[in-house]
Amino acid sequence: MISKIRNGFINILEILHLRIFGHKMSYEMKKFIGHLPWSFLGLFFSSLILFSVNILAGRILGPESYGKYNLVLVVASIMAIPILLGLDITSIKYISNAKNQLDKNKYLSNSFRIAVFSSFTVFVLVATFYLKISEIFGVSIEIVFVALIFSILLSFKNLLDSFIKSFHFFRFQAIVRIVESSVVIFLFFYFFYFLKKNEYEFYLISSISGAAVLCGVYLFRIRKNIIGWDKEKVEEIFHYSKTTIILACILMIMNSMDKIFIGKFLGVHLLGIYSAYFTVSMIFISQVVLMLGNVFFPMISSAENKYAVVKKIDRLGIIFFIPGTLVIATCAFLMLKLYGKEFQLNQWYIIWFSALSFLQIPSDFYRNVISSENRLYAKMKKAFFVIPIIFFSLYYLVLSSNATRNFFNAILIYSIYVLSYLFITRFICRDIISYNNLKQ
Q: Taking a C-beta distance cutoff of 8 angstroms, is the pair 110, 229 a contact?
């Protein structure tokens, strides 16, 4: 049944591809699309469940507690950087390109062991300096330790997921993601409707439990792939990770900086409202990026003609920008109403967030293309090194001042970041086109 649906899906896309680009699909493109049905299945159902839970949590918790929940997520995401060390990207690259099963297992095993060591190190550091961390982020000690636990699980969830992707276990991945979301919704209803617990901590417990189940199942699946330590492979991993960790750090800071400053200077109530707008506009886009990126990066890492991929991203981005933004805005408007009256509804903010959300699709694909090329990845690292400093200063100067401290300016700074990210990633991809022209 799935095979028939997949073949029909590929046939339709072949026709569309021919009309839009004027030539037939390449082998890499067919391979990429062939993996999408299972990727779509898992992400669609799990995302539908998790987003429904998110809306219910927003309605029950209200803007303030919902803001605290999102603040925990932000702190956890930042703590995950020194734990994960960019190993999720590095693992996909090396495992996908490995010529034999033994090498694949070596890359997997050493990445996993590095993550175990780094998680232990981060745990000790946070447990030692928790008061300073609490002061820096402007959060309670309770949030610091909850975020620490969540960051460790989040890191291993992403790392183990990258292993599953690298081995192309897409059907297994889809099933496990549905199981994870089922655990989250079951515990959520148990806490909030059966036990009548209306604190954000219980939403976190539900999410943490789902991630723990996913990690446990993934570990059981790859247990035979974990073999001995290999110094040569560790050196290779660290050589590439030196770049990925810096870039991952920059991207995570940029994706979290807005929420940290809003929570610190505008308060958790406005952070809750901002997070609701961000969630409803990004929910579909993030899942589209995950669904396509789930199989795109392993494919692009081994593809020879990356030039053709960049040109297709350009063309599709231009064609679908306006209709895509309108579709996102319509869905976001309807979904935001489900959060309740406490979350202020502003149609212009919805359109604004929706346009920014769509622009992150081509940006993310350009980043994946860059990540697959070592020479381009080094350039992106250099280009992005100065950006956090600029935007950190901008957020601080604007939001710390009573005269400019408002919701509109917070969104405006975020907009400048999104446009800068799109421009820089596309500018770096220009080297692929230049290199292709030289070859011709």
A: yes
Report whether 109 contacts 231 (CB < 8 A).
Answer: no
Number of domains in the chain: 1
Please name the residue that has the structure tokens 């770096």.
428
Phi-psi region of 168 (alpha: psi -120 to 50; beta: other; left: phi over 0): left
> Measured between alpha carbons, how far is 90 from 107 in angstroms, rounded to an integer?
9
Q: Residue 402 belongs to what domain range?
A: 35-439
Going by C-alpha positions, the residue among 80, 119, 79, 112 that lies closest to residue 94 is 112
Distance, CA of 174 to CA of 431 (rounded, Å):
36
Residue 11 located in a structural domain: no
CA–CA dist 303, 310 (Å, integer): 12
267-277 pLDDT, tens digit per residue, is: 888 888 888 88
Does residue 78 lie within any of the structural domains? yes
User: Among the residues of 226-305, which ranges form H helices?
Assistant: 231-261, 268-302
Q: What angle do CA 49, 53, 56 make, to 5 degrees?
A: 140
Task: State CA 92 to chain mean position distance.
Answer: 15
CA neighbours within 13 Å on the CB side: how many for 170? 22
Mean pLDDT (the chain) is 79
- Contacts of residue 223, defined as CB under 8 A and 6 or more positions apart, other chains included, come to none
> Does residue 358 lie in a domain region?
yes
Confirm whether pTM is higher than 0.85.
no
Which residue is listed with tokens 């009548």? 196
User: How many C-beta neighbours within 10 Å does residue 226 have?
Assistant: 14
Would 19 be classed as within a structural domain?
A: no
> What is the token pair recorded at 31?
């391979």
pLDDT, tens only, 395-410? 888 888 888 888 888 8
